Amino acid sequence: MKISVVGGGYVGLITGACLAEKGHHVTIIDIDKEKINAINSARPPIYEKGLEELLARHSGKNLLASTGYESVRDSEISIICVGTPMGEDGSADLKYIVSAAESIGRELKNSGVYHVVTVKSTVPPGTTSGIVVPAVMSASGNNPNIGFAMNPEFLREGIAVDDFMNPDRVVIGSDDKKSGDLVESLYSDFNIRILRTGLVSAEMIKYASNSFLATKISFSNEVGNICKSFGIDVYEVMEGVGLDHRISPYFLNAGCGFGGSCFPKDVSALIHLAKSKGVDPVLLRSVLKVNEVQPLLIIEILKKRLGDLNGKRIAVLGLAFKGDTDDIRDSRAVPAIERLIMEGVDVHAFDPMANENMKAVFPEITYHDSAAGALENADGCLVMTEWPEFSRLDKEFDKMKKRVIIEGRRILSIPDAEGICW
Ligand SMILES: NC(=O)C1=CN([C@@H]2O[C@H](COP(=O)(O)OP(=O)(O)OC[C@H]3O[C@@H](n4cnc5c(N)ncnc54)[C@H](O)[C@@H]3O)[C@@H](O)[C@H]2O)C=CC1
Ligand SMILES: O=C(O)[C@H]1O[C@H](OP(=O)(O)OP(=O)(O)OC[C@H]2O[C@@H](n3ccc(=O)[nH]c3=O)[C@H](O)[C@@H]2O)[C@H](O)[C@@H](O)[C@@H]1O
């Protein structure tokens, strides 16, 4: 099938590359020329396991990239993957969705070929029918050969290619059968459950899924804070809790909280949506509140151990919002470092991949190319990201003045680290 993927960011790039791997002819459209050039030269603009190989196999063959929308005219499906960032009031900012929909619509003017515009970006319920449909229809001169679908994406960064290729489920929302059937044919060889719903339910499933996962994490953190006050190991507790198949063992890791480009933004958007209808989302508000407090708790523990932090040298290991990525969006390391700077700390940071990205946020701190470098002469150490390689650290901590190590993630395998909430 000929497919145009609109937006070549995380989701667009993975979607385009994976659909090319499935044998489709894909064009990725993005307004960012640098990204387009990178994709066309088979250079991944983001770090993601397996992506480089996919680009090497398909770039310039059945995977093309362009800043223009011309490919839409020849495609049977366009898939909108542009960003839906958090607006100032916590709502989803839909300006990129509107402009992508208008551009697609313009290309489909007078086209006689049936085309389905599919929204993959995370959008509030009602966006596809209330914003995308009118924008496309108006720009296309009300072309009757256009259908619409909503196909939320559930991939995780770091294992995005595998998540796309082997998802737990595929959700396809459409208000007419023909559009939904065409999108479903993209997944015909996936061998998983495909759930067909209406447009608004598909949109809401994405928000409810991310909010539920975020709730599991904040719940574990709250239990962890209680456990700490009793001297109980929350990891042992949650292992026992997660053995119940109704709960599952996943997303029960307590620590310094959730970050990333989606959980904080999507929980905020759902809160905003609820309030707009007069519903007070008590639980979701608390989910965010717990998450705001966790990275600051780690500093409180450090203070208990070291006293006044002014002038102290503190190593921060891990800057990415989670392991196996260079993405620092909403990383829990950011509020922690902000607080350390406020306290007059000399911050020495190390991340296996995210140093460069963090330099743009905190140019004033010192970056190291190894954990050992960051730990040299440090008064204390905070571990903020669950990088697997941190589990092998031990002797490196001997470089510190004294081994005062506070873990925000359960990743170290040394006996003398103190957990943030365990
Ligand atoms: N990052 C992730 O792991 C996941 C993200 N999502 C959702 O997918 C959507 C996209 O997220 P990301 O890929 O992370 O965003 P991103 O910010 O990495 O990429 C968005 C891309 O859209 C491009 N763009 C903006 N306006 C455009 C236009 N008019 N025409 C063409 N391209 C345009 C930007 O230049 C950028 O490259 C969001 O709604 C997000 O919530 C869903 C699942 C996973
Ligand atoms: O909508 C999205 O963008 C995506 O958001 C998350 O994926 P992602 O943000 O890539 O990362 P996760 O692995 O979910 O981790 C998110 C954050 O939660 C934290 N986390 C995760 C699990 C856990 O048990 N405890 C915990 O604190 C991680 O450290 C990280 O900061 C979801 O897992 C995806 O299903 C979804 O598609």
UniProtKB/TrEMBL annotation:
One of its GO terms (biological process) is polysaccharide biosynthetic process. InterPro entries: 6-PGluconate_DH-like_C_sf, NAD(P)-bd_dom_sf, UDP-Glc/GDP-Man, UDP-Glc/GDP-Man_DH_C, UDP-Glc/GDP-Man_DH_C_sf, UDP-Glc/GDP-Man_DH_dimer, UDP-Glc/GDP-Man_DH_N, UDPglc_DH_bac. Substrate binds at F154, L155, R156, E157, K206, F251, L252, N253, A254, G255, G259, K322. GO terms for molecular function: NAD binding; UDP-glucose 6-dehydrogenase activity. Pathway: Nucleotide-sugar biosynthesis; UDP-alpha-D-glucuronate biosynthesis; UDP-alpha-D-glucuronate from UDP-alpha-D-glucose: step 1/1. It catalyses: UDP-alpha-D-glucose + 2 NAD(+) + H2O = UDP-alpha-D-glucuronate + 2 NADH + 3 H(+). Keywords: NAD, Oxidoreductase. The active site is at C262 (nucleophile). Its EC number is 1.1.1.22. Residues 315-414 form the UDP-glucose/GDP-mannose dehydrogenase C-terminal domain. Belongs to the UDP-glucose/GDP-mannose dehydrogenase family. NCBIfam families: NDP-sugDHase. PANTHER family: UDP-GLUCOSE 6-DEHYDROGENASE TUAD. This is UDP-glucose 6-dehydrogenase. It comes from Methanolacinia petrolearia (strain DSM 11571 / OCM 486 / SEBR 4847) (Methanoplanus petrolearius). The lineage of its organism: Archaea, Methanobacteriati, Methanobacteriota, Stenosarchaea group, Methanomicrobia.
